[in-house]
Amino acid sequence: MSATDRGLDPAVERAIEVFLEDWLVEEEIPGASVAVFDEDGPLYATGLGSRTLDGTEPATSETLYNVGSITKIVTAMAVFQLVERDDLDPDDEIRDYVPFLHEAPGDPITVRELLTHSSGMPSDTIFERDNAATETDLRLHADAAADRRITDGSRFMYYNTGYKILGQLVAAVDGRDYAEYVGDEIFSPLGMDRSTFDQRVLQSESDAMTGYRVEDGERIPVDEPLDFESGLADGALISPVTELTRLLRCVLGDGTLDGARLLAPETIEAMREQQQHRTSTIDGQDRWYGHGLMIEEFLDDRLVGHSGLVEHAQAYAGGFRDRELGVAVACNRSEVPIWAIAMGILAIAAGESPVEVVPEVALREKIGAVTGRYGSFRGPSASVERAGGHITVEIEEWGQEFPAFPESLAAEEYAFYTVEPNGHRTPVEFREIDSELSMLWGPGRFTRTG
């Protein structure tokens, strides 16, 4: 563990560790690293668990991780640096600079539309192609999907290939390839000395993660470097959480860090502006996308950052726009609720309870409280299991199974509903009756037995 002299209260540090350790156990995450920071630098940084499944190599605050789409923050910064040099305009057509998406229907796709995922091009999976290794492969892939573009209005559609194309844009406009440009113009002035796009460092560096994916319930190590030959700019970044805090301090501040100016204050502000509505929770909390940044209201402030996911790792880095507090967290397993983990850590650092203020944590608690086996009086038995953001109820003797969805995110409200084949909405309520948890659904009452 390491902490600065300005660090968090020891009780707060311990609460963060307990919270994170609970997630590691429940989600079967081998190891994770976290750093909490403010505008002046790190407040607290540590690693929990192990970089390897055998537990012999502890995760540290300096462990290198694939951080996936956090790369998009870097790419957006690079593009806006070129904008500040008057080399391009965000509303220019992308085809004016690079040979991509010429045949897409509708109005020509702009640089800004790729930055904000508002081009109408649907999400794609070029990273799953083993033979996508060149710029030509990328162009053919993008052009083959061009006719699937949605042109009837502005809609958020997360388009990874769009950021690969933006990486090609940076190289075409500046003359240096994307990795060289970012190294010179972003990593170097920010002091991100170990951050890289070279996937081989995960095998050569001593303090680097071994990633794991889950197959048939087993954690399988991923020993081979990921292939980003078709483009780096959407998700190839490798970095320790401590260096991600330097990136976010620049983005959350005025575009400078330790005397080095990367972008003008008004440019940074434009990056942080809400551009596209992404999603809403069932309680009406909106989430947005800016230029390379995910945005939402949290704890009466604006939370700005980005999550990242690759085959065997996940990360999040972000912080408050006004409150001087941020977090970077990474782990060596994918398909875990990294956003909820990061928001929970931020909540604890801010003196709040994650269960009360983080939607995903509240939902996790709610669902965990009602899962189990239930019996009825001289009738059938039932089982209730977690199924992502809802539960599945199985009435075993009747051979009946159905999903039930929460009415709200409030952790203390155990009201769910299901939709019957006839379209009727039927309540599924969990209530404490005579010191026993009961499930009340349609025909009767089921009492938890285990």
Which short descriptors sum up this protein?
single chain, 450 residues, alpha+beta, Beta-lactamase, Lipocalin, 3 domains, eight-stranded antiparallel sheet, eight-stranded antiparallel β-barrel, 28% helix
Describe this entry's structure for a reader.
The chain is α+β, with helices and mostly antiparallel strands. The chain folds into 3 domains: 10-75 and 184-357, Beta-lactamase (3-Layer(aba) Sandwich); 89-169, no CATH class; 370-448, Beta Barrel (Lipocalin). It has 12 helices and 22 strands. It has helices spanning 10-26, 71-84, 111-115, 135-144, 160-174, 178-190, 201-204, 241-252, 265-271, 338-349, 354-357, 359-370; strands at residues 31-38, 41-49, 65-66, 211-215, 218-222, 238-239, 256-257, 260-261, 276-280, 286-289, 294-298, 301-310, 313-320, 326-331, 372-375, 382-387, 390-395, 400-406, 415-419, 425-433, 436-441, 444-448. The chain has an 8-stranded antiparallel β-sheet with strand order 2-1-14-13-12-11-10-9, sandwiched between helices. The two termini are 39 Å apart.
Total beta strand runs: 22
Classified by CATH, the class of the largest domain is Alpha Beta
Taken as a percent bin, the fraction of beta residues is: 25-35%
Q: What would you call the structural class?
A: alpha+beta
Helix content: 25-40%
CATH architecture of the largest domain: 3-Layer(aba) Sandwich
The helix tally amounts to 12
The chain-level mean pLDDT equals 92
The geometry reads as globular
CATH fold name of the largest domain: Beta-lactamase
Unreliable spans are: 126-130
The CATH superfamily title of the largest domain: DD-peptidase/beta-lactamase superfamily
Rg of Cα set: 23 Å
Intertermini distance: 39 Å
Summarize the main sheet. Answer: 8 strands, antiparallel
| Lateral arrangement of strands in the main beta sheet | 2-1-14-13-12-11-10-9
